[in-house]
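Two records follow; treat each independently.
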Amino acid sequence: MRRRWWGGVAAALVLGWTQLAAAQGKILLSEVLGSWQGDDTVQFVELQMIAAGQHMLAGVGELVFDDAAGDAGTRRFFTLTANVPRGVINATILVATARFRQVAPSVAPDFTLPDGMMATRHGRVCYQVRSSNGGATLVDCIAYGSFTGQNGSFGRPEVTPDNRSLQRVDLTGVNRPDWITALTPAPQNNAGAITTMATLCGDGRISQGEVCDGSDLGGQTCASLGYARGKLRCVECHLDTRNCTFCGNDEKGDDEECDGSDFGDTTCGALGFTGGTLACSEKCRISTAGCDPTFHIPGGGPAKTDCTAEWRITNVAQKPGSTGKTALKQRCRDGDTGCDHDAVAGQCTFALAACFVRDDARLAKCTAPAVGDWTLLAPAIDVAPAADLVAAVAALAPSTVVGGAVTFATPLETPETCTETVAVVLPVGGKLKLRARTSATAGKPRDQDTLKLLCRP
C-alpha cells in the first residue's frame, strides 16, 4: 500500500521550513517517475496538498525542470493552467505524460506533461508559486542522479527515478531523509484514483529498463565500468558501485589520500616532518611510517601567524598522521627509544628545539615575518630547562637576553632557522608546560605557542 507522509501536526514544520508567498504554496512534491521499463516518455510528477484550499492553481502553481547541470539556460517550466476540483487536505495533483496514460489507463492525469520536459536520470524537479508581479517563490525541490547544480537547503541528490519512482516519506526539507525509492510507483490523481505500477524487477532476468536483476549483472564488473577493483552489486535492478573503487589505478582521486606512487603535493616535509618517504596503503591512505621521527609542532596560535615559530621534537609514538595534525600534548614512556633519549630509568629525556620563519605547508595562510624577539613565558627562567632554551635561541644570532626574553640585534630572516637540540628531562609522572611568544621586528604580528610534555612510567 502507498505510504503517505502527511500528518496534521506537520504543517507547522513545513511552513517554518520555507516562506510561502501564497496559499497555493502549501503544496509539496510527493512522487516522481522519470522513466518506466525502458520507456523514457513515461513520466509523472505528483503533488500533494498539505492544507485545504490549495486547488486554485491556475496560473499560480508551476513545475520547474532542471537538467543535470542545473543550467538556467536549459531550464523548463510547466505552468498549471487550470484549477483542480478537490482542495481537501491530502488531495493530490497528477502531472503526467501522454504515454503514461497509455501505460496506466485507469488514472487520468490532471495535467498532461509534454515529452522532454523532465530529465530522465539526472536532474531536478521543483514546485514554485508565481506572484501577481511576475516573481516566484520556490517551495520544494527534489534533485536526483548526478545533479551537480545548486540545490539550496534541499541537500544532496537522491538516486535516479528511472524504472522506479522517488516517494516522499518525511518533511525535513532535505532530499536524502525525505525521499525513498519505490519499485512499484503508486500515482494518484486529484479525483483519488490510484494505480500501482507492477515492476519486472526481482525475477532474476534482465528485462526492459533494467541493467541487472539479482545475481545477473549482465556481464558487468567494477573493472568493466572503469574502476580498479571491487565488488559490483545489483540493487533494485540498478548497478550499485558503492563497493567499487578507483584505488589501485596509480592515479590519486579526489577521495583518496594517495594511489600507488601518486601523493599529489603531499610529502613528509609537507606534513611537518624533517624528511623521510611516504607510503601508500592498499586502501589509498597515506602511511607516515617512513617519515623521520622528528617533526614540527605549530604551537596553536592564529593560523596567519602560527608559522612564525614552531617547536621541533622527536617522538615516534605521537608523530603526525596523514593530515599533518600534531598534538600540543606530547607524551613519552620511560625507556621508549622513540622519544626517551637517555638510558636512565625513572625519567624521560625529550629532544626539543625552537624553529623560526618556517614555510609550513600545513599553514597555507601564514607567511612568516622576520623575527625581532622571542620570550619564554613559562616556565620561569630558574626552572629547568628554561635557561637552556633561552640560551639556545640567543645563540642563533647576535642578541641581548633579559630574563626569558631574547632580542635579536639583526632580525632572523633565514627560512627555518632552528636552535640546537635541548634536552628536557622529566621524572616519571612529571609534566612541563612551555609557553613562548615570538614577535616580528615591528612588534607585530605576534605568535604565541604552547607545548605540554609528560613522562609516563
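The next record belongs to a different protein.
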Amino acid sequence: MQDKTQPERTWRLDNYVVWRRTTPFSPPTDIIELPDKLVVLLEIAGMRAGDFKVVLLDNRVIITGTREHPGWQNAAYHQVEIGYGDFRVEVLLPWSVEREDVGASYRDGFLEINLPRKPEMNIRIVDVQADDTHQQE
C-alpha cells in the first residue's frame, strides 16, 4: 500500500523507467528475548560501525542512520529493491535494562545491540509488631 503523504515518483524515458524513492526505508529487524538480555539485530549491509546512532530513551531503543546510495552515472535500473537514505528503527523494551552495560557491534552487514536485563528489585516487607511498652492508662 502506497503512502499518499510521500508519493513515489516515476518517469519513463525511451523504454527505461527512472524511479526515485522518496520515503524512508526500514531495514529488516529481529528482536530476540533471552533469559538475561534482549538482542536487537538489524540486517543492513554497506555501512560502517560509526554510521549508526543508538539511543536509549525511557523504555525504547532508537536506531538511526543513513545508507548512502552508490550513485552510478548513466545507469538504467531494471530492478530497485535495496533501500538507501535515512532510516529509523524504534523498539519498545518489555522490561528495564542495565543502561551502563548496553553494547552494540556491527559485523558482516548486521548491527547487533545487546540490552542486558536489569535485575528485579527486591522489596522488603516489614512486619509491624505490637508495642506493649505504651499501655493505655
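Discussion point: The two ends are 82 Å apart (CA to CA). How would you locate this feature using only the C-alpha cell line?
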